[in-house]
Design brief:
By secondary structure, this protein is mostly helical. It contains twelve helices and no strands. It has helices at residues 6-36, 47-55, 61-67, 71-96, 103-133, 148-163, 168-173, 176-193, 203-231, 235-238, 243-254, 263-287. The longest helix is centred in the N-terminal third of the chain and has 31 residues, at 6-36.
């Protein structure tokens, strides 16, 4: 059996963790995205239920298929993103750690740089994902919005290469999410394992650390995620969806609370999904 390098183990563990997570929580991701794309309109009571009813509007097998609308592109994106993130983060953390006095600064710097690199490399995948998941796969819907290949080709044909990088600014600004997350996660991890001979976390410890770190990180930068989703939507092609314009639209229609439209769905999706990701990652990393 081939012995993987430490970075190779990080990449394989991250790739596997991303794939398992996507399969487990995709319907929640779909609801979250649909709610985020309503943020520029007036608030409505029962918004989450309205989105869910819209997704489940088909009959029979179509209902189930609609819940997994965009699964292939989401599976690809999350697997590649986590593999890149863990691979880059693990390497950078080991390089930066000897250069700084505090381990927390090493975690923060490695998390920030890894986040920027991953965002730049995977942004085209997320634009295509948003275009596919924003519409239902029903009779009469444009064929170009139904799957990865046609959606990607339409994007290139109509918007060129710049279209692949819609939402790049809030995505890069939002890497603070990853930096904050790993600052909390690795600091807690270090304290838990400090006086322990084994360097492998229990699953219960991983879940607790992940839940706390994720809730803090997601809430801290959530408006940027909201802006990114809207800038990557098809509506942004014809309208003014600059950051300044989006802030005016969202706050004008919903008040400051509108900047957190979809936060509940995001937390319900993000916390368990990240717990799954890190449980798979921590266990697989030590078994490779």
């Amino acid at each position: 059996m081939v012995e993987l390098s430490p970075t190779g183990k990080e990449v394989v563990a991250g790739l596997s963790a991303g794939a398992v997570t996507s399969l487990a929580v995709h319907p929640l991701d779909l609801v979250k995205l649909r709610v985020q794309l309503r943020a520029t309109k007036g608030a409505r009571a029962g918004e989450y239920w309205a989105v869910l009813r819209g997704i489940l509007g088909g009959e029979g097998a179509l209902k189930f298929r609609q819940l997994y609308r965009g699964l292939p592109i989401n599976l690809l994106g999350n697997s590649v993103a986590w593999a890149l993130y863990f691979g880059i983060y693990g390497s950078l953390r080991d390089v930066v750690a000897p250069m700084v006095k505090s381990p927390s600064w090493a975690y923060l710097m490695a998390g920030g740089i890894s986040g920027v690199a991953t965002s730049v490399l995977t942004n085209p995948i997320w634009v295509v994902k948003t275009r596919i998941m924003a519409v239902d796969r029903v009779p009469g819907a444009p064929a170009s919005d139904r799957s990865m290949g046609p959606a990607f080709l339409r994007l290139l044909r109509e918007e060129g290469v710049p279209g692949l990088y819609r939402g790049m600014l809030p995505a890069v600004l939002g890497v603070g999410h990853g930096a904050v997350y790993f600052l909390f996660y690795d600091t807690l991890r270090e304290r838990i394992l400090r006086d322990r001979e084994s360097k492998k976390l229990r699953n219960s410890e991983t879940v607790l650390m992940t839940a706390v770190s994720k809730m803090v990180a997601v809430t801290a930068v959530y408006p940027l995620q909201l802006f990114k989703a809207n800038q990557q939507s098809r509506a942004a092609v014809e309208g003014d969806y600059s950051l300044r314009s989006l802030v005016r639209k969202v706050v004008g229609n919903r008040g400051v609370r509108g900047l957190y439209t979809g936060l509940l769905a995001n937390l319900v999706k993000a916390v368990p999904s990240t717990c799954i990701t890190f449980c798979v990652y921590e266990n697989l990393k030590y078994s490779l």
